């Protein structure tokens, strides 16, 4: 089975280029990040599990991570930060960072020297731009 799997973002492309990963390794990481199990990945990439584990060791050596999960978490975290920086304004990012610390709207207003109404407006914009419904979604995204 020959499949065309593209990395999901420019960050993934830059990361895999910087680590000099092969196309096969990029496909493997993309499938792993999407949650496919080893058996399914072996079928999709037309390889045996022993070959997959051997190549996976090569990926870890190139990237200097201990596990593939750490590597994927790092890619997702950096991609999330990259996306957030493109979507939110500078002031919204400032509010977002203080909000992540668990501060109340009043505390955020005092820290950033803005009115509570402005804080509420920024939080509303953050929720809309990042497709969040509440603070629980916000903390899950962090």
UniProtKB/TrEMBL annotation:
GO molecular function: DNA binding
InterPro entries: Sig_transdc_resp-reg_C-effctor (IPR016032), Tscrpt_reg_LuxR_C (IPR000792), WH-like_DNA-bd_sf (IPR036388)
Keywords from the UniProt entry: DNA-binding, Transcription, Transcription regulation
Any single biological process term in GO: regulation of DNA-templated transcription
Boundaries of every HTH luxR-type domain copy: 81-142
Protein name as it appears in the record: HTH luxR-type domain-containing protein
